[in-house]
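[agent] plan:
  1. take the single chain provided in the ticket
  2. run structure prediction with default settings
  3. attach C-alpha cells to the ticket
  4. add a short note for the reviewer (M.T.)
[agent] executing step 1
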Amino acid sequence: MAAPKRGRSASAPSKPGRSLALILIAIVALTGGMFLSGHTTPRLGIDLAGGTSITLKAKADQGSAINKANMDTAVDIMNRRVNGLGVSEAEVQTQGNDNIIVNIPKGTNSEEAQEQVGTTAKLYFRPVLASEPSGQAAKSPSPSASSSGSSSPKPSASPSSSASSKEEASSSGTASPGASATSQGRAVTDALKKASPTPSASASASGSGTPSATPSASSSGGTATDSKLQAQYAALDCTKPTARANAGKRAKPGQSTVACGEIDGTWYKYLLGPAAVDGTEVKKAQAVFDTQGAAGWQVQMNFTKSGADKFADITGELAKNQPPQNEFGIVLDGEVVSSPYVQQAITGGQAEISGSFKQEEAQGLANMLSYGALPLSFQEQSVTTVTAALGGEQLRAGLLAGAIGLALVVLYLVVYYRGLSLVAMASLVVSAILTYVIMSLLGPAIGFALNLPAVCGAIVAIGITADSFIVYFERIRDEIREGRSLRPAVERAWPRARRTILVSDFVSFLAAAVLFIVTVGKVQGFAFTLGLTTLLDVVVVFFFTKPLMTLLARRPFFANGHKWSGLDPKSLGAKPPLRRTRRPAGPVAGPVDPKEA
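[agent] step 2 finished; step 3 output follows
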C-alpha cells in the first residue's frame, strides 16, 4: 500500500529568486519615477534649507468662533496667498486648536509673503472692461442670448430687498445679454472710470451694438500707462500658472489691472477697472436655494452702509453698458472668482448672484465673499529665521551623526558576525535606497519635508533595521548549535525569527503612529520617518535579507562553516550530530539444524 504524500514542511527551501527580483523591480520603478518627476533630492524643511517660520495665534472676532471650519478656511486663504506670490513649497498648517504655523522657504518674494501672511485677504469688486477666453481660439460673438442658448448662463446680480425683486431677478436670469461671455468681441469702455482715464472701446459699425474685439485707447486716456496695460492684457495667457500668479501683481485698488478667472473649466483673462467696493464692506454672504422659483442655488450678499452706497453707484453705472462692461469682477487675491452682470442699479444693501450654480459652487463663492477677510484675527506669536548657512550646518551635523551611528553598527556586525555582516550591510544599503527614493517622491506628493527631527528618526531606524538582522542571525546560529547543517538551519530559523521581527516592528510602528497623532510641528517629522523606515524594515527583511541568506547557504564558504563566515560550528559550540543506532527487532531466523531438531 502506497504511503500518503506529505505536505511541504516548514523547513522546505523557498524560491529566493522571485523575492529578490520583485524588490529589484520595485527599486528600479521607484528610482525611475523619481528621475521622471524631476525631484531627485528630498525636500528640505526650513531648519535645513533656511527660511522663516511664523507662528500665528487666532483671536475670535465678534460673530466668529475659533473652530476647525474657520481655522481650515484661514489656512486655505493663507496658503493661496503665499504660494500665489511665487514662494515655492511654502507650508501653512494648523498646530493645536488655535495656532497656525507658516513655513516660508528662503527664496524669491519670501519677504513679501512674510509681510502679507496673517493679514486680511484682498477682496475687491471691480468693473469688467474686457474679457475673453485665454489660450484658445475665441468663438464668434452673438448679439444676445436666449433661454436655451447656453447650458451654463452667465451669473447675474440682482436686488434681493423684496420678494418681487427676487422674482424679477429670477425671470431675467435665463436670458442674459451677458451670455456671450465666450466671444472675443469684447472691448474697453472709459465710461466706468471717472477718477482716471482708462482704455475704451469703439462700437462696431454693423449696427448690432456688439463691442469691437480689440481694446483701444480713448482720445483722452491714451497715456503710456494705458498702453502698457493694454499690452499686458493682450499678452496675458491665463492657462499658464506663472502668468496667473503674476497677473495684476502689485496693482493698487485705485488702479486698473489685469486678472485671470476660471469659468466652467475654461480660463478667461480680464481687464478690470479700479476697485469700486472693498471686500471688507461685505457684511455677510450665504448660499441659499430658491424654493419659489427656478433660479436654483443663489448667493445672497449683505453690505455695510458705506458698501451699500458704493455698490448702488457702481451697479447703476454698469447697467447702462453693453456686455461685458455691464459685469463686475469679484477678485480674491488677484483672481476673478466670479463675474456676474447687472441690469439695474442694486440699492438697499442687499443683492443676490444667481446662475447655474451647483450647491458646492454657491457655497464656495459665499465663503470667499464672507471670508475674503480672514474669518479670525491672528496675532503674531513668534518669527524664527534660519539662514541657509545655519541650515547647511545643521544638515551636515545630522548627516555626520548618521554616518557615525552607521559606522558603529557596521563595526559591531563585522566583529561579531564576520561574513554575515555582508548580508546585513547589503540589506542596509537596500533600505537606504528605498528610504531616499520614497522621501524624494513624498515631497511633491504630500508635501513631506525632511527636517532635523526627521533625520534623527532615520538615524534611529538604523538600529531598528540592524536589530531585525541580528534576530534572524541568532536564530540560525541556534539551529547550528543543535547540530543542523546550514541549509535546513536557515529555513527552520525563519518562522521563529519572523514572528519576533513582526512583533518588534509592530511595537515600533505603533509608537510612531501614536507620536504622529498626538504631536504637532516638527516632532511629526520624527514620527513619520520612524514609521516609514519601520515599514521598510519589514519589506527588506522579507524580500531581501531572507532570500539572500537562502542563496548564500548554498555556497561552500557559508555551507561548510568557514571560520570567517560567522557560522563556524566549532566556534558556536555546536553539538555533534545525533546518530541513531539500529537494534535488531528480534532473533534472525535461519535454517534449522537437523541435529537440534
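[agent] step 4 note for reviewer: Residues 1-13, 137-153, 161-222 have pLDDT under 50 and may be disordered.
[agent] ticket updated
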